[in-house]
Amino acid sequence: MHKTMADTPSSGADHTYGFGTRAIHAGAQPDPVTGARATPIHQTTSFVFDSAEHASSLFNLQTFGNVYSRISNPTVAVLEERIASLENGRAALACASGMAAQMAALLAILKCGDHIVAASTLYGGTVGQLGVGFARLGIETTFVDPADPENFARAMRPNTRAVYGETIGNPLVNVLDIGSIADVAHAHGVPLVIDNTVASPYLCNPLNFGADIVVHSATKYIGGHGTTMGGVVVEGGKFPWDNGKFPEMVEPSRAYHGVKFYETFGDFGYTMKARMEVNRTFGGVLSPLNAWLLLQGAETLHLRMREHCRNALRVAQFLQGHPKVQWVNYPGLSGSPFHALAQKQFRAVDGHPGASGILTFGVKGGAAAGEKFIDACEFLSHLANIGDAKTLVIHPASTTHRQLNDEELARAGVGADMVRLSVGIEDVDDILWDIDQALERATG
Ligand SMILES: *Cc1c(COP(=O)(O)O)cnc(C)c1O
User: Fold this and answer.
1) 19-109+191-298 belongs to which CATH class?
2) In 163-260, where does DSSP find H-type helix?
């Protein structure tokens, strides 16, 4: 279960494999018993012990091995090692959903009385998790405008234990300055946790820019086909957990056999703590079948992301020149206020910063025209998801943000006319055709 990165085929003797090769191979090998080339689905709750001695050494954490699938599972472990490799991380923990992954990432190091500083532009579900769910547990969050890293510095308190942001926000499609915000977090001795869902590991590796922990909703681009819920937490392995602010990382764990996580497991001690004290105890684990489906998605992540980026840029350029469109927001457009940050942090696709598949635009005619546009689409799917191979469309003001009044909508940056597209990988000419005819019908 806990093979080190050196055991995975992410690099050979004097050769480092590229992203596409690792997306297909990292963490996996032909099954030693059957020779099966594809990763088997180990649909089992439990694993037989070799002997009484083997069993007790597993329970004492002296030997690595599988006991029960709430702690670890060989199929899930392949996904964990694969995403750790794609994020240039040290170790990973898979969870039942993106929300479960965020919860595990934060509850591994936070307790009642602690404080988080987070970007105000986070995914709505995350605003609820931190602002309401964690608040009930006595963990308070201050939300700050992420445009200026100084806003994070101003909100830090003596009891702050994590800084939280998203590489690309949703639905604002704003790009975070990861390096500057990591500097703020580190100056205060706390880790930076980055939700990298929208960029995916192909376009950005936040650990390379100073983040300490990365979380993903694998439900989106990693799975890539709108079929499977899942989440992943990835640890960079460089954060100094013995800096005095995280006594539970260094003192004996009351929740797990008195183990000292940082001393015993070092650069993957945080992942072990999240595994043993959060997933094992709170139970939000990924099923083996879902791990397998997400692995299937991961194998084409590099191909799909390139196509998502190409199609989204074409769509953004088309909308920019369209007489029925008021405004377009896409960091891949050279006129975007986030273009320079996108260039710095994101992998280039065809010479442009690869800014993923999410963009927003305003239809002339406001909320009514926005709603009509959605109804007029032929094959664009009206639903509340992103990161599917299929192009998805939603009008936030009448759906996901329906309960907000005009003032709250403005504060969330969601205009009444805003339409959000998750541009898929269909033929781009067909996507442009559907958008064009729907704009005609919505405003004509
Ligand atoms: C969807 C999403 C989540 C939540 O993930 P689930 O898999 O739906 O639980 C978290 N963050 C972002 C940016 C998302 O898009």
Assistant:
1) alpha beta
2) 178-187, 200-203, 247-250
Same fold, 19-109+191-298 and 301-443: no
Decide: 99 in ligand 1 pocket, CB within 6 A. yes
Cβ of 345 less than 6 Å from ligand 1: no
Complete DSSP assignment for 10-25: TB-SS-B--HHHHHHH
Task: Indicate the domain borders of the chain.
Answer: 19-109+191-298, 301-443
Burial of 435 (0-12, 13-18, 19+ CB in 10 A): buried
- Give the H or E element holding residue 392: strand 392-394
Q: How far is the CA of 47 from the centre of ligand 1 (A)?
A: 32
Q: What is the pLDDT along the chain (444 residues), one digit of tens a residue?
A: 334 444 455 555 789 999 999 999 999 999 999 999 999 999 999 999 999 999 988 887 788 899 999 999 999 999 999 999 999 999 999 999 999 999 999 999 999 999 999 999 999 899 999 999 999 999 999 999 999 999 999 999 999 999 999 999 988 999 999 999 999 999 999 999 999 999 999 999 999 999 999 999 999 999 999 999 999 999 999 999 999 999 999 999 998 889 999 999 999 999 999 999 999 999 999 999 999 999 999 999 999 999 999 999 999 999 999 999 999 999 999 999 999 999 999 999 999 999 999 999 999 998 899 999 999 999 999 999 999 999 999 998 888 877 777 777 777 788 889 999 999 999 999 999 999 999 999 987
Alpha carbons 56 and 2: distance in angstroms, whole number: 18
Residue 284 beta carbon below 6 angstroms from any ligand 1 atom: no
Distance 391 CA to ligand 1 centre (A): 17
CATH tag, 301-443: 3.90.1150.10
